[in-house]
Design brief:
Number of domains: 1
Mean pLDDT: 88
CATH topology: Lipocalin
Strand content: over 45%
Number of helices: 2
Order of helices and strands: HHEEEEEEEEEE
Helix content: 10-25%
Distance between the termini: 71 Å
Length: about 170
């Protein structure tokens, strides 16, 4: 009887822990649908920002298994972001001008609004958890010719700023 009670307690605690972990990361994402939607970005995009012209180019690479984003602007060195599926997860790695490479996982995707949200998993070349790095990204695929990105930069464990940019397809 005592063994059964211990076993039941372990199962209940395990179920509660699993439920809490799922609640923390949010609902599951249809990664394949989100990735297919991202691949529709292939082409060139531009935005006018306070710092001048900003450009994105998207290229489907590696036999269709990855999407490469090249970002450039008049006042900042070029950066790359690579999107790809990993089993049932959609991941991105951002090769940042800050010298680190945050890796993020898609945590929410709304196919009706086109909003896709990524959150930090880990990072390479991050001097410490308090070092400045991109932490979260929201991408809103407004329509075939309009895109909004929001990159959230963290430092010392908290949000320092968010860069929001509205792009228009040019090709």
């Amino acid at each position: 009887m005592k063994t059964r009670l211990v076993l039941i307690a372990v199962l209940v605690v395990g179920a509660i822990t699993l439920h809490a972990a799922e609640a923390k990361i949010g609902p599951s994402v249809d990664a394949a649908a989100a990735f297919a939607r991202l691949k529709a970005l292939a082409g060139d995009w531009e935005a006018t920002t306070a710092e001048g012209k900003s450009r994105l180019s998207y290229e489907i690479v590696s036999g269709g298994t990855a999407l490469l984003e090249r970002e450039s602007s008049e006042k900042m060195p070029a950066m790359l972001t690579l999107f790809h599926l990993d089993g049932e997860r959609l991941l991105l790695t951002h090769y940042c001008v800050a010298g680190n490479q945050p890796r993020m996982q898609a945590r929410a995707f709304n196919p009706e609004t086109g909003e896709l949200e990524f959150r930090l998993l880990d990072a390479t070349n991050l001097a410490s958890p308090n070092a400045g790095h991109m932490h979260n990204v929201k991408i809103r695929l407004v329509d075939a010719d309009h895109l909004i990105t929001e990159w959230q930069f963290y430092e010392n464990g908290q949000s320092k700023f968010t860069e929001s940019t509205q792009f228009t397809r040019v090709r």
